[in-house]
Amino acid sequence: MTIYHWSWNRTPRIEMDLDNILEQIGEFGKFQIQNYLLICLPVIFSAANSLTYVFTAAIPKYRCFVPSCDDPMNATYDSDWVPYAVPPNKISRSSKVFEPDQCFYYKQKEFNGSEFCEPDDFTNETLKCNEWVFDPHERSIVNDWLITCPENEPKLALVGTMHFAGIAFGTVVSGFLADRFGRKNIFILSILLMAITGVLQVISGGLFWFYIFMFLNAVGTAGVYPLAFILGVEMVGKSKREIASMALNYFYAVGEAMVGILAWLSRDWIILQIAASAPPVLFILIIPDSTRWLIAKGRLFEAKAIIDKAAHVNGKEFTSIVPVQLTSNQKDKLTAANKREIWTTFKAIIRSGGCGALSTSARFAALLAPFVPLLEHIDRSFPLTLFGIIAFIGGFLTLILPETLNTKLPETVQDAENLGRKILETDQNNSKEIEITRL
């Protein structure tokens, strides 16, 4: 509801307690459910785009092209003579299943006298190849741009690094831009950037532009989930915030599962990339705005329109005391001090930026993560051990965070500081009570 506080100079300061209003019109009614689903659908494709690089830069099965044996126009990956012409790779040497080496083949004898490739036609000497035959059932950028052999593996790892660099940049930038220009506007911009650059990756034609579009795609992808989270949590009442924040993760999980299914069915990085990137554009015209952000920016009439619509859809009667008219004369009477208070009072005005900064801090280690699997060359258990230690440290640090279950969503920076201070004081009081009990 809207409350007027009058100072001695008769200047009004406008405050709106949206949590109280939501209790009147429904904390998670039909209106919120409809709009919540609308912001969750792009999250599915955001999750898909966050994982497509794994399949895009995947290493398919391939082997050396063997002159005099392979047909240049119709080479077959698993020809019968391959075990004689190509040495086994390191993994198959210790197993019973033959897998051909990807970068070497056996040198042929100069005069073998045979029209076919037979075991006696080859020596034990190996040669490095510069042509390859790929398994036709898999397609990634390795096939299209011949990024082959171990010396080129860092180029493939760099795909993941560019992705996480874009995520790190996008989360903080989209958050602060959303606080400045609106949740909905930057949410839509993020979706468009994700969709357009996702498709452009397909037609990039080479690694340089592919890296650029991968980075920009990640920037857009990074803005979708955090802003959907903020939009979802801000549209419901305080008793429903936990449900709203958790339900969004199920949509994200669906997107992660979807990209795996699409990759399995298509086995083609181009089909996968287009399927994961293009559809979200369909949702940009029906995404709702954040009422809390509108209130924080002083755009009360737009906020009132959304509140009235929510009350109508939810079938609730709402006696609004939001002013139906605020004349320009009244606006002019607002002093500079009071204007500053209105624009800096609401915690909602920095909520997206805070979430973005938090998410960005989590991405710095992710920049190096694609290179961690390469540590298998030192010890096969090294990568998993490293990941486990880092996860344990992260889980331990969550123990110092304040509990916000069933508490009022902070509306001001001071409210947020008081929340942390209250938790600290509670812990100190509990410690004192324990000491007294011991005495």
TrEMBL record:
<feature type="transmembrane region" description="Helical">
    <location>
        <begin position="156"/>
        <end position="178"/>
    </location>
</feature>
<feature type="transmembrane region" description="Helical">
    <location>
        <begin position="348"/>
        <end position="369"/>
    </location>
</feature>
<keyword id="KW-0472">Membrane</keyword>
<dbReference type="GO" id="GO:0022857">
    <property type="term" value="F:transmembrane transporter activity"/>
</dbReference>
<dbReference type="InterPro" id="IPR005828">
    <property type="entry name" value="MFS_sugar_transport-like"/>
</dbReference>
<feature type="transmembrane region" description="Helical">
    <location>
        <begin position="381"/>
        <end position="401"/>
    </location>
</feature>
<dbReference type="InterPro" id="IPR036259">
    <property type="entry name" value="MFS_trans_sf"/>
</dbReference>
<feature type="transmembrane region" description="Helical">
    <location>
        <begin position="209"/>
        <end position="231"/>
    </location>
</feature>
<keyword id="KW-1133">Transmembrane helix</keyword>
<feature type="transmembrane region" description="Helical">
    <location>
        <begin position="270"/>
        <end position="287"/>
    </location>
</feature>
<feature type="transmembrane region" description="Helical">
    <location>
        <begin position="36"/>
        <end position="59"/>
    </location>
</feature>
<dbReference type="GO" id="GO:0016020">
    <property type="term" value="C:membrane"/>
</dbReference>
<protein>
    <submittedName>
        <fullName>CSON004419 protein</fullName>
    </submittedName>
</protein>
<dbReference type="Pfam" id="PF00083">
    <property type="entry name" value="Sugar_tr"/>
</dbReference>
<feature type="transmembrane region" description="Helical">
    <location>
        <begin position="185"/>
        <end position="203"/>
    </location>
</feature>
<feature type="transmembrane region" description="Helical">
    <location>
        <begin position="243"/>
        <end position="264"/>
    </location>
</feature>
<keyword id="KW-0812">Transmembrane</keyword>
<dbReference type="InterPro" id="IPR005829">
    <property type="entry name" value="Sugar_transporter_CS"/>
</dbReference>
